Amino acid sequence: MKNRRGAHRHNLALPIVLAELSRKTHVIHGTTRNISTHGLYFTIDLPVAAGLSLEFSFTLLADIHQENQATVAGRARVVRVEEPGSGSDKVGIAVAIESFKISMPPPNFSRMR
User: pTM for the full model?
Assistant: First the structure.
């Protein structure tokens, strides 16, 4: 069977923060399950509607010392909502990324001495 996805998915469980574009004060916390440059799959406590536009933000750690963090932030549209499976109370959400930006803090040269 041929993989029809446009980008490789990376299985990563990271905290993610989301906000509905229409109600930016409504913050949603979840956990990513897999990430690609085209989309995200994450779990949250309550369902959201397919078609909803969201802003998202999560942090990637570049090394095992939890230094050199990169923050990924952007906008996405909900394309699929999966009801909780047996033994879980989390809703699965698949989103298509519309835009994103990666920002990294400046290097800490004092640690390199």
Answer: 0.81
